[in-house]
Amino acid sequence: MERGEAAPPAAEEKGEEEDDLGYRLFPDRNKKPQSFLVRSLFTFHNKCQLMLRMTLDTNPYAQLLLDAMKQSGCTVFNDRHFSCENCDGCVSGGFDSATSQIVLCQNNIRHQSHMNRVVTHELIHAFDHCRAHVDWFKNVKHLACSEIRAANLSGDCTLMNEIARFKFGLKGHHQTCVRDRAIRSILAVRKVSKETAEKAVDEVFDACFNDLEPFGRIPHSKTDAKRAYRDFQNRDRYNANL
Questions:
Q1: Strand 101-105 to strand 82-85: parallel, antiparallel, or no bridges (unpaired)?
Q2: Catalytic residue check, 122
Q3: Structure-model confidence comparison of residues 90 and 37, the more confident one
Q4: Which tens digits make up the pLDDT trace of 1-16?
Q5: Where are the domains positioned within the chain?
Q6: Residue 133 — pLDDT band, cuts 50, 70, 90?
Q7: In what order do the strands lie in the sheet with 93-96?
Q8: Which CATH class is domain 22-133?
Q9: What is the pLDDT of residue 10?
Q10: Which of 41, 96, 141, 228 shows a CA-CA span of 20 to 30 A to 193?
Q11: Which residues are within 8 A (CB) of 189 and not within 5 positions of it... i.e. 6 or more apart?
Q12: Is residue 54 within 8 Å of 112, Cβ to Cβ?
C-alpha cells in the first residue's frame, strides 16, 4: 500500500467495535455515481483518467499483470474495473474485492510515476484475487500475503523510492521496506493491533516474499519489468506449442 494503497475489503472485529472494512478511506464508494458530464468538469478526474490510460498502454509492470489476469480468466476492462475517486488524504488507491474494482485516488495521485506504481500495486491484489481464494474479510494472513507481494513486486521499495522517502539501508533493506509497508497497509484497513499485523506478516513473509508470480523475478526497475514481460510472453508461446 502506497501511503494507504490497500484493499478496503479485509477486516476483522476487535472487541465490540465494528470494523468499517477500510471504506472510511474511500468515501466516494458509498455515493451515488455522478454522470460522465459532471465528472468531466473536474480536473482531477480528467487527469486521473489520462494518467491511467498512459499506464495501461505503456507501463510494462501493468501490461504484464493485465496479460496474466487475462490468461487466468479475469480480463480487466478500463471502464469496469478502474474508478477514479476522491479519497482520504492518506491513501492513493485500493482494491475493492466486493466489486473487483481498483480505486484510484484522483485527489492524491499527482504524477505519472505515482500512477504507475499505484496501478501496479493494486493489480497485484487483483491478480491474487483472481488466482486464489483470498479471504480478504476474515483472514489477516491472506491480506498480509497479498500486501507483501504488492510491496515486493510493484516497485514500492525500489532504491530511488526509498531515497525519496529519506530511508537508506544496506543489506536486507528491500526486505525491511516490504515488511514495513505491508504492516502499514494492514493497519490502514483493519482494526487490529500493530502486534497482530506484525505477527501476520512475519508468519507468511518468507513464502509470500518468494512468490514472484507472474513476474518470475523482483522487478527493481522498468528495465527489469520489460524483461519479465518478454519472458512471460515467451513462456506463453512455449506453452502454446506443447
A1: parallel
A2: yes
A3: 90
A4: 455 555 554 433 334 4
A5: 22-133, 136-214
A6: confident
A7: 82-85, 101-105, 93-96
A8: alpha beta
A9: 41
A10: 96
A11: 1, 6, 7, 8, 9, 10, 11, 21, 22, 25, 94, 143
A12: yes
Strands (E) across 106-191 are located at none
pLDDT tens digits, 158-180 = 766 655 655 666 667 899 999 99
Host H or E run for residue 105: strand 101-105
**Cα atoms in the 13 Å half-sphere on the side-chain side of 99:** 16
Distances (CA, A) of 89 to 58, 93, 102, 105: 28, 11, 17, 9
Q: Which amino acid is at 121?
A: H
Q: How many CB atoms lie within 10 A of CB 207?
A: 10
How far from 15 is each of 4, 37, 128, CA to CA, in Å? Answer: 24, 45, 29
Q: Is the pLDDT of residue 71 over 60?
A: yes
Task: Indicate the Cα dihedral angle 135, 140, 146, 150, nearest 10°.
Answer: 140
Question: How many whole angstroms separate alpha carbon 53 and alpha carbon 80?
Answer: 14
Phi, psi of 202 (to 5 degrees): -65, -35
**Measuring CA to CA, how many Å separate 141 from each of 7, 187, 207, 217?**
14, 13, 12, 23
Q: What cell was used for 76?
A: 480487466
List 85, 122, 147, 198, catalytic entry: 122
